[in-house]
Write a structure and sequence with these properties.
CATH superfamily of the domain at 5-41 and 207-277 and 387-437: FAD/NAD(P)-binding domain
Pfam families: Amino_oxidase
CATH topology of the domain at 5-41 and 207-277 and 387-437: FAD/NAD(P)-binding domain
Radius of gyration: 22 Å
Shape: globular
Protein name: Amine oxidase domain-containing protein
Number of strands: 18
Organism: Streptomyces termitum
InterPro entries: Amino_oxidase, FAD/NAD-bd_sf, Zeta_carotene_desat/Oxidored
CATH class of the domain at 5-41 and 207-277 and 387-437: Alpha Beta
Distance between the termini: 37 Å
Number of helices: 17
GO molecular function, one term: oxidoreductase activity
């Protein structure tokens, strides 16, 4: 049988485009199918009335993002395309903002923690530093933290370390519930990305890299893939109701979506895809007629659950990068507290935007008077939850034989970030190459590495 396609990639987010880019570099004909009308996935940015709105991801780091920076260079982007944010991040505590979160001198400044909690911060940082080699962010399933959740790990320290550092960080950036999500991915990621001073963004929107990669690949937008099946020496996929065959398919989508497309197939019975649950994100971008900012002067303000019931974080996008708002105006993103997202979705976008904007007035005085428009972004499957149960199953998933249907996404990398997406794309490409090169089933697949 002659397949209709060489390799098909489902999803034009960074994971799919990274896989497609690598396979194309190796001489394969790759076709990317994307249901949306543009690339980017959860990194997509939108233009609205002169504002440039990042609908999902907000930043990357100059540290710990090896695969991302390799793609940046290959895509021909310059350092000017990825400017340093250069603003602090604060946490709200006892009625006012406290700067210093994520700074190199956190052990001295306290990172916004109360004085009684600062010795615990020093202990936590000291333990993490001593075990840095063991806290492998590529293999969080095998670290000294074992099956501890974030809340479990935090019980060894002063409650303030959880309430005003670990909980607001994990809720704001990952949508995690600290009683459910594993500690090892969070600690490994915090060690890898380095200080806030190393964080950067993309000029022209967070989807700049994906747009550049997609432009060099045959990418079909507005094409929905409804089913994918593995037939050993080839795969079948249904695109807009039409059946196609391919030598291999990369599913670069969240794990729950991959399970729906494959009808729950798990030929290796690893259990990891089904265990890879996701957390939602609900974000309201507020266009302002003046450049307001959260109190404290930082570009981001974390609002812990014990201080604020409705919000988890506020981001001044025009401080993150000036091109996000027209001159003399402002753009503030409001991230909902994960536990309140179902209620906000049920209330409808207009009412949800009103509620979040009203709650934000406490942290950005004058926001209501300056507000000209709100734009709602709801991602039902925003970030992999990475529970201890999922991590316990990940090793078998990584060791499974290479097949005609492979997976990519930050859930595969167990790293909820664009770097996780980029790394998983490279791994998926390597596994596809191994599958195509092997003469029979049972072939050995490449493993994820830190190289």
């Amino acid at each position: 049988m002659t397949p209709d396609l060489d390799i098909a990639v489902v999803g034009a987010g960074l994971a799919g485009l990274a896989a497609a880019h690598e396979l194309s570099r190796r001489g394969h004909e790759v076709r990317v199918f994307e249901a949306a009308d543009a690339p980017g996935g959860r990194m997509r940015s939108l233009h609205r009335d002169g504002y440039l709105i990042d609908t999902g991801a907000e930043q990357i780091s100059a540290q710990g993002y090896r695969a991302t920076w390799q793609l940046i260079r290959r895509a021909g982007l310059t350092p000017d395309d990825v400017p340093r944010i250069g603003r602090p991040m604060a946490v709200w505590r006892d009625g006012r903002p406290r700067n210093g979160v994520g700074e190199p001198r956190a052990v001295l400044t306290g990172a916004g923690l109360a004085p009684a909690a600062r010795p615990s911060l020093a202990r936590f940082l000291g333990w993490s530093g001593r075990h840095r080699a063991d806290l492998d962010h590529d293999h969080p399933e095998a670290t000294p933290l074992g099956a501890d959740t974030i809340a479990d790990a935090a019980r060894r320290y002063h409650p303030g370390l959880h309430d005003h550092l670990l909980q607001p960080l994990s809720a704001a950036f990952f949508g995690w519930d600290t009683a459910r999500s594993a500690a090892s991915p969070l600690v490994g990621l915090l060690l890898a990305v380095g200080p806030v001073s190393a964080w950067r963004t993309y000029r022209g929107g967070m989807d700049l890299l994906t747009r550049r990669l997609a432009a060099a690949l045959p990418t079909r937008y507005g094409h929905r893939v409804d089913e994918v099946t593995d037939h050993g020496d080839h795969a079948r996929l249904t695109v807009d109701g039409a059946a196609l065959t391919a030598r291999a398919v990369v599913l670069a989508v969240p794990a729950p979506v991959a399970l729906r497309l494959t009808d729950g197939a798990d030929p290796d019975a690893t259990g990891y895809p089904a265990a890879s649950t996701y957390r939602p994100m609900y974000k309201v971008s507020c266009a302002l007629d003046r450049p307001l900012a959260p109190r404290g002067g930082g570009y981001a303000l974390l609002t812990p659950a014990d201080e604020e019931p409705l919000l988890s974080c506020l981001i001044a996008d025009h401080l993150k990068c000036p091109d996000r708002a027209p001159a003399g105006r402002g753009l503030i993103s409001l991230l909902a507290a994960p536990s309140r997202i179902p209620d906000l979705v049920g209330a409808g976008e207009e009412e949800a935007g009103r509620r979040l904007a009203a709650a934000a007035e406490r942290y950005v005085p004058g926001l209501g008077a300056a507000l000209t428009a709100t734009h709602v972004h709801h991602w039902p499957e925003a970030m992999p939850e990475l529970t201890p149960r999922a991590l316990a199953l990940r090793g078998a998933f990584l060791r499974r034989p290479a097949r005609a249907v492979e997976y990519a996404g930050d859930w595969v990398a167990a790293r909820p970030s664009s770097e996780g997406a980029a790394r998983s794309g490279a791994l998926a490409a390597a596994r596809v190459l191994a599958h195509l090169a092997a003469p029979r089933r049972g072939r050995t697949a490449p493993q994820e590495t830190t190289a």
